[in-house]
Amino acid sequence: MAGEFPNEEKKNEVGNVKTLSTTHVKPKKQIGRKECQLVTFDLPYLAFYYNQKLIIYKGGHENFEDIVGNLKDGLALVLEEFYQLAGKLDKDEDGVFKVVYDDDVEGVEVVAAAAEELEVAELTAEEGTSRFKELLPYNGVVNLEGLQRPLLAVQLTKLKDGLAMGCAFNHAILDGTSTWHFMSSWAHICNGGASIKVPPFLERTKARNTRVKLDLSQPSDAPEHAKSAGANGDVAAQSGPTLREKVFKFSESAIDQIKSKVNAAAVTDSKPFSTFQSLSAHVWQAVTRARELAPGDYTVFTVFADCRNRVAPPMPDSYFGNLIQAIFTVTAAGLIMSSPVEFGAGLIRTAIESHDAEAIKKRNEEWESNPIIFQYKDAGVNCVAVGSSPRFKVYEVDFGWGSPESVRSGLNNRFDGMVYLYPGKSGGRSIDVEISLEAKAMERLERDKEFLMEA
C-alpha cells in the first residue's frame, strides 16, 4: 500500500487544496459481522455534526506518498480493535440505532491532498477557522448521515513544510476521551508499536442497557452545508449571529494566577477550586461582561462531563463510545458580573459534584421516557459551553515525525459561547482556550485586560 495513490487520475482542486486520491481502509484481518446497540449516552448526539479535529505537523511532507501509505497501513491494524469506526450506523426493525461492522463495509474514508504553497506557520497563526475548511472532511455533515457514509473520515494534506491531518468522527459513536484514545493508539502503531497499549472497551450496554426507539428522518433535498436536526428529528437550516473564533493562550503562570485568585477568598478548611473550575469561572465572567448582558438576564454554564468514573458501576477509561453528559448551572448575569469570580466557580463546582451516579441515572431515565434529539447548539440561553479537556494528551500524538505544532477543533459544532479547552503547546499547566463568540462580543473580549491577565 505504501507509496501508491489509487485513482490519482481523479485529482480534484478546490481553492488552494488539490485532492490526490480518495480511498477506504478496513481492518487488516477479517473480523466478521459485529453489531453494537447505541445507548442513551450516544443517541442525543445524532443531531450534532461530525466532530472535527485538525492536527498540524512540522514534518511528514517529505516522502508524502510513503507517509500516506504507512498511515493507512497503521490504520488498518488499529481498526482491528477499533473496528466500530470502520462500520456504519443502522437501525433494527424497532427503530433502535446500532453500529454495524462486517467485512464488506467500505471502511474509513482517507483523502490524500496537497496545498504545497501553504506553510505550517500560516496555520498555527490562524485564530479563526477560515483557513481550515479545505483541510477538513465532512464540513456541515450531521451524525445521522452515518447511515450512509463512513463514521470516520481522514484528510492528509501535504503542506509546503509539513502535514495537516484533518479528522471527522461521527459524534454519535464516540466522545473526546475515545477520540484521543484512538488517535494515540493509531500513532503508537505507526511509530513501531507491535500492538496498541490499551484495547478499547466495546461493551456499551454495560454502561446502559435500555433500548430506545427513535424515528428520525433526514430530507434528501436539504443542502449538505446547512443541515442540522431538530427536536422532531427533521433536518433544518441553521441561522444565528455572525461568529468569530479565537484561541486565547494562557501560560502556566497565567493559569496559576487565575487559580490563586479564585482560591484567595476561599474558606480555609474548604476544598480548593480545581484548575478547571477556576478557569471556567474566569471565562464565564469575562464572556458575560463581553456580551454586555442586562443584570436580570440569565446566563448558563454548561460542561460536557466525562461520566466514566461517575456511573455505577464505574466504566474503564478505555470505554469506547459516548459516556458524557451535559451539566448545566444557571444564574443572573448581574450576579456573575458583580460577584467575585469564586461565586461562579462555586456554582460550577456544585453542579459538577452533584452529578453523581444517581443524578446520571435519573437524567437517563427522564430522557428515555421522552427522548428529545436536541440541536448541537441547545446548550442554554447566553451560554458558555465547555468541551474537550486540557487532560487530553493531544501533543503526544506522534506518528513518527514529531509532535504536533497545533491542535484545533474544526468548523462543526460551533455556536455563540462554545469553548474548547486543550493543553498548551508549551506543556506544563498551560491551556489553550478556543472560543466562538458573536463578533462584537469577541472584540470586547479581546480588549478585556482582566480576562487576558494583563491588568
UniProtKB/TrEMBL annotation:
One Pfam family in the UniProt entry: Transferase
Keyword flag Acyltransferase: yes
UniProt cross-references to InterPro entries, sorted A to Z: CAT-like_dom_sf, Sec_Metabolite_Acyltrans
Signal peptide positions on this chain: none
Transmembrane segments: none
A single GO molecular function term of this UniProt record: acyltransferase activity
Family designation: Belongs to the plant acyltransferase family.
Name of the protein in question: BAHD acyltransferase DCR
